[in-house]
Every structure is written in C-alpha cells, then in structure tokens.
C-alpha cells in the first residue's frame, strides 16, 4: 500500500469477505474501523484499540459484526463512537435490547451513535451503567462534512444512495512534525542550523505531505453519487472501493445499486489516486476472481492492490470431525 506518515491501513478481508478496513495510528496503537461485517477473526485485544467505528450503511454484511464489538467492549470504562447514516441508532437500539443487562456495572462503556444526515448530525447515547437504555438524541455541530477528529487524523463523510442511505468516507492524516528517520544520510546542512532554528526545523523534518484515504462501499453509479465522490475525494492517496460486478454484468450492478469494473475504471480515472484496492466482489465470481482484475484498467501511476479471495477462516464442515 502507499506510504502514510502516521497511519497504517489494513484490509482484514478478502475479495469475497465482508469489508473490514482497519486504520491504526503508529504512535498510539489506537485505531478506527470502517464497516463492521463478520469480525470473528479479529481478536479482543485488537478490537480494544478501537476509538471509532464508521458504518457505511445498515445492510447485514456491513453491520452484523457490531454484536462482536458489544461482546468485547461493553464492560470497558470508555465511550465508543459509532458513525453511520440516519436510522443507525434505531438498529443499535434493537440490537442492544435483544440482550439482558441486569448485571450492568457503573464502569461499563457507553456506545454513542452519531447519525450523519443531509441537514444535520444527531447523536444518541447508550450508557452501559444504565443497561444501555437509549437517551434522547441531540444535534451536534460539525465543520462542513468533517464528522470526526483527533490529534492524528480526521474523517469526513458524505451521503450517497444504495437504495438506502450509504455513507462514503475520507480519512486524512493531520499535519505533524516528524523527525526524518534517515537523518544520518543527509550529510551536513547547507547552513549552520544551530544559529537558525527555522533551518534546523527544515533539516531534521521528515519530508512528505499528509496522506488521504477514500472508502466507498456500497453505492449506485449515478450523477448524484458521482458529485458526492468528486467533492469529497480529490487528492486521496489510497482508494478502497467496492467493485462488485464485471462489465458484462453491468445491468445487475444497476439493478442492485453497486459498481462494476467499467464504473471503477471511470472513477479511478477521475480521482487518479496512487493506489486502488478493489473489494466486495460478488460471490457469483468465486472461482473467477482474476477475471475481475483483468477488466481494471487504471491510469499510469495508479497501483492495483490485489487481495486473496478469502481471508477469513473456512467454516467447520461435517467432514472436519468424526
């Protein structure tokens, strides 16, 4: 994957698995998660590093793993923010109400659901010490389309449509002073830096601009969504994007509001990122994944990142025990 200064993106899925994009901060070890399908192959220790979760939409393959998060994180003394489209709080409420919380402790976690709408952003809290009873929603202020920020990164989002509201996300590193790890190879500075603090700052600073990452899953290929992508994604270094269908199945892509390889080629030509990771391929191609890659024709300078068809463990079958 392309180089980021402070962040480490990992894609914990194969082409056919539920999408899981994990972005870790190098200095703190903390992480953010994009989409939350099957998470059974991620350890509790890994999940405990989460600071925020970003849900594109509420189809099962993007949300069902939330129960695993509840299981591992509910008894920790912290707040976990869950960002998603309008209607997410209702779904989280129903999931939490499916369990009994009569043994809740005062130190338990709070799950805060932040719904990103066209006109406003609304937060609903579910405090663990009160058995995750839903609190009244309240509007929160944001700066434009920026919905989350900490010392190292910020996340922006825009609503697209997938026959239901579906969010696309952009994550950017914040500007940060880093000492060049290859400083010993630079030789002597051009001017006496001990007499000029500004020159010293420039000499020891690691070069390279903060990088941006785009995440798109799942959307229809139409004018409204294209405008939203064009407004949110310019200048990204890495694009992680669904590519569900091949070109000869374009009609199926249109019917199900997904992208095909023709759409991805057009999208990449528009954004021209340094690298693209296609994901979320339809299981109809489970034996022909290479054919999808062959249809992707990117501009010079854009790297195609390939991943295996499956990353999750195979299910235990009847033939695996006696």
Task: Summarize, please.
With 322 residues, this protein is an alpha/beta fold.
Describe the structure.
This protein has 322 residues and is an alpha/beta fold. The chain has a single domain (7-175, 210-304), classed as 4-Layer Sandwich (Metallo-beta-lactamase, Chain A). The two termini are 43 Å apart. The protein is globular and about 70 Å long. It has helices at 44-47, 60-63, 66-73, 88-97, 197-204, 223-232, 250-256, 261-271, 289-294; strands at residues 7-11, 21-25, 31-34, 50-54, 79-84, 110-116, 121-127, 138-140, 146-149, 153-161, 165-173, 212-216, 238-242, 275-279, 303-304. A hairpin with a 3-residue loop joins strand 9 and strand 10. The strands form 2 sheets. Strands 1-2-3-4-5-6-7-8 form an 8-stranded mixed β-sheet, with helices on one face. A 7-stranded mixed β-sheet has the order 9-10-11-12-13-14-15, with helices on one face. The relative contact order is 0.14.
């Amino acid at each position: 994957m392309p180089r980021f200064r402070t962040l480490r993106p990992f894609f914990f899925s194969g082409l056919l698995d539920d999408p899981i994009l994990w972005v870790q901060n190098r200095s703190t070890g903390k992480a953010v998660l994009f989409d939350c399908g099957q998470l059974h192959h991620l350890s509790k220790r890994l999940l405990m590093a989460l600071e925020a979760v970003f849900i594109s939409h509420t189809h099962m393959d993007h949300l069902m793993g939330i129960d695993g998060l509840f299981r591992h994180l509910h008894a920790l003394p912290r707040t976990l923010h869950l960002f998603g489209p309008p209607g997410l709080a209702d779904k989280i409420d129903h999931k939490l109400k499916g369990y009994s919380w009569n043994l809740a402790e005062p130190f338990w976690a709070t799950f805060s659901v932040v719904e990103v709408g066209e006109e406003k952003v609304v937060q609903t809290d579910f405090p663990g010490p009160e058995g995750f009873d839903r609190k009244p929603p309240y509007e929160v202020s944001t700066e434009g389309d920026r919905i989350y920020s900490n010392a190292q990164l910020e996340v922006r989002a825009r609503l697209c449509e997938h026959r239901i509201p579906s969010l696309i996300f952009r994550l950017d590193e914040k500007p940060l002073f880093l000492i060049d790890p290859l400083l010993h190879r630079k030789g002597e500075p051009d001017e006496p830096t001990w007499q000029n603090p500004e020159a010293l700052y420039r000499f020891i600073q690691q070069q390279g601009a903060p990088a941006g990452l785009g995440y798109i899953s799942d959307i229809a290929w139409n004018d409204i969504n294209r405008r939203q992508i064009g407004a949110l994604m310019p200048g990204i270094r890495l694009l992680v994007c669904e590519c569900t269908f091949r070109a000869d199945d374009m009609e199926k892509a249109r019917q199900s509001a997904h992208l095909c390889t023709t759409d991805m080629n057009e999208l990449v030509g528009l954004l021209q990122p340094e690298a693209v990771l296609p994901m979320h391929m339809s299981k109809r191609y489970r034996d022909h994944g290479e054919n999808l890659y062959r249809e992707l024709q990117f501009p010079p300078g854009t790297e195609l990142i390939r991943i295996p068809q499956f990353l999750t463990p195979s299910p235990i079958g009847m033939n695996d025990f006696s």
